[in-house]
Amino acid sequence: MHANDTVLKMVAGRPDQFPKDAKPQIALSGRSNVGKSSLINRLIGVKSLARTSSVPGKTVTVNFYECESRFYLVDLPGYGYVQNKERKSAFSSVADAYFQQNDRLKLVLQLIDAKVGATNDDLTMLDFLHKTGIPFAVVATKCDKLSASAAERAASEIREKANLEERIPVILFSAKSGRGKEELKGLIFSCLKSSV
Asked: Would the pTM of this model clear 0.85, i.e. be above it?
């Protein structure tokens, strides 16, 4: 995954705008302001491919980043801060449609702020993923804001609170320091390889 091999292929505000090709997809889910765009930028190795917003809950599009012409990183709308009823309805519609009958979705990276911990919205999303059987991993973001021991403790608390099975990875990640980047890339490529 490099900047030269990655392009923002589609910004979809409606389900009919989703790419129709058969490329596998790795989706990023999480609260607004949890660091999805920062994670994408760190993985790709650029600062501004994925735009970060200063207004949580504003974006209700699904952004498809085509990587190496072989798969998509999919940035889903953030949840948790959406207060406006019309915007909340738009978020629910486009997010729900994304998960429905999407056999190209190979893995969901569920981002949770390590400092905040798993919120009720996060737990609802994890429960949904568990019930639908969609493969997922948890990424504890912003771990650079915690000491090493506190970050490890936060990961354990997320696992315990969400009642995650041991087979489900909980990866400590920092967009600032790059911690967890290689582990994430390994997980993504392993998932893509097994789905071929």
From this structure: yes
Phi, psi for 115 (deg, rounded to 5): -75, -35
Query: Average pLDDT for consecutive 10-residue bins of the chain (196 residues)?
Result: 79 92 95 91 79 54 92 89 49 80 92 96 93 94 96 96 95 95 95 78
Domain-wise residue ranges, the chain: 3-194
CATH code, residues 3-194: 3.40.50.300
Number of neighbours of residue 87 by Cβ within 10 angstroms: 16
Neighbours of 147 (CB within 10 A): 10
Q: Which long-range contacts (CB under 8 A, 24 or more apart) does 92-99 make?
A: 93/15, 94/12, 94/13, 94/14, 94/15, 94/60, 94/61, 94/62, 95/62, 97/15, 97/18, 98/15, 98/18, 98/27, 98/62, 98/74, 99/128, 99/132, 99/134
C-beta separation of 114 from 145 below 8 A? yes
Tokens standing for residue 182: 């290689």
Residue 144: DSSP 8-state: G
Q: Is the dihedral of CA 121, 125, 130, 135 positive or negative?
A: negative
Backbone angles phi, psi at 90, to 5 degrees: -65, -40
Residues 6+ apart with CB under 8 A from 162: 118, 122, 123, 126, 138
Which residues have C-beta within 8 Å of that of residue 151, sequence separation ≥ 6?
A: 114, 140, 143, 172
